[in-house]
Every structure is written in C-alpha cells, then in structure tokens.
Amino acid sequence: MGDVVSGVFHVAARGRVYLVGAGPGDPELLTVRAHRLVASARVLAYDELVAPSILALAPPDAERIAVGRRKGSCPEAPSIHPAVLARALAGHDVVRLKGGDPMIFGRGGEEAEQLAALRVPFEIVPGVSAALGAAASAGIPLTHRDAAASVAFVTAHRKHDASADELAARVPREGTVVLYMGLATLRETARALVAAGRAPSTPAAVVSHATLPTQREVVADLATIADAAFAANLEAPALVIVGDVVARRCPPSAALAALSARAL
C-alpha cells in the first residue's frame, strides 16, 4: 500500500495488532496491560465469548468489529480476520480481544505466524486462561500434592472425523484434565476416558459461564457427569475438569461461610 507524491513512492506505515487475552469473563480479571489497551482502543476486534462488560471499557467512539467464531464453526476461515488485516495494513492499531489467553486454544499462534509473514507488527498480551478462571471460581485446585502432579489442557472439539476414542487416547491417564469446548460431546468423551483407563468413579466437574454472575457448576463422577450436566441444563461456554483434584473442591463462598461461622 502506498502513494506517489512528487515522484517519490511512500509506503504507508502499518498499524500494530495486539493479540490480547480478555480473561475468563469477569472484567476484574483483566490484566493491567489488557485493561489499558482496551480503554484506549481505536479499533477493537473481539471474539463472541468476550463479555459485554469488557467491551464497554473501550471508548464509545472506538470501532468495534465482531470477528470471533465459537467452537471452530468456521474451520476453513483464515487465521486473521480480513477486517483486522485491512485496518492494520491501512495504518491503524488494532486491539484483537480473545477470551481467556490468546495462546491457549485461541488461534493466537496461527495469527502471530500470519502477522509475522506479512510483516505486520504485533504484540501478544497474555490473559487469565478459561481453565484457571473456572478452576479458581469453583474452588478446584488443578494441581495438589496429594491428588495431581500434572494438568493437561485438551480441546474436546474434534476436527474432521476424529473420534472421542482418539481424543481420549492422547489424554494422560493420570493427573488433571481440563476439557475446553467439551459440553456438547461430554457423554461420549466421558465414556472414552473410562475406556482409555480412567476409573468411572473419577471425580469430574462442569463449570458453566465461569467467573460471571451466571456461573453454575455441577460435580459428579465420570460415569454420571453427562447426566448431571444435562439435568442441570448447563449452558456453553463451559469447561470440564476431570481428576482427583475435583474431590478437593473448596468453593470460595463455602470458605467465607466457614470463616464467618468461626467468628461468631
């Protein structure tokens, strides 16, 4: 892109793209850096899962562009939305907001590769991942000295014809497993995890709308977690946490109630 003035070709300066983690939902969990970028954004491109309360932090006159896709609903779409590229190539800085952390199932790596190939300057701003937010808000430790020494983040959304059995075969048989986008396929995924070696009695939890006022969760075991989630009519977005750490659950509200009781 460029223009010719007095016989001299001028190349337009390219804008910077900020790949920003919006955290798990609650605007109070934004990083200071993310908050500053959103509050000063002139162009804000955001995922569908970014909470309205976070979008409201942007200046009223900022251009807002909805570019997100849930559950990989457009698997063949380009890594970078054309509108984001167009603004950056025209010299505008763009704040690209992504739910959770941009580098954990947020296509941040793919977008960074494309931006680098096009020589568009960019910055990656980490965010509190959905897994960390869901676990903390539900009082579930993802690791515990007496329960789990490792944690695996796994997407339950399968590409093409991959089966739940193939997914389960790649999941460690010990430690904590956090399934992203796992609500729709929870029944078959739970069965596959049991077939791959997890005990049916393994504790499991589903956390819906983590960190938001609408958060709800159910706790059961692998054998019954799908039925429990269905009976509770939990809604996406939701994360599934599997492992002995779920039995160590200590909801923050329960802890506060216990402290209040002791004080009486």
**Overall structural domain count:** 2
C-alpha-based Rg, rounded: 21 Å
Overall CATH architecture of the largest domain: 2-Layer Sandwich
Residue runs with pLDDT of under 50 for 5 or more positions: 1-10
Class per helix and strand makeup = alpha/beta
The residue-averaged pLDDT reads 88
Explain what you see.
The protein contains nine helices and twelve strands. With 264 residues, it is α/β, with parallel strands linked by helices. The protein has two domains: 13-128, Cobalt-precorrin-4 Transmethylase, domain 1 (3-Layer(aba) Sandwich); 131-248, Methyltransferase, Cobalt-precorrin-4 Transmethylase, Domain 2 (2-Layer Sandwich), CATH 3.30.950. α6 links the parallel β8 (151-155) and β9 (176-180). It starts with a strand and ends with a helix. 39% of the residues are buried.
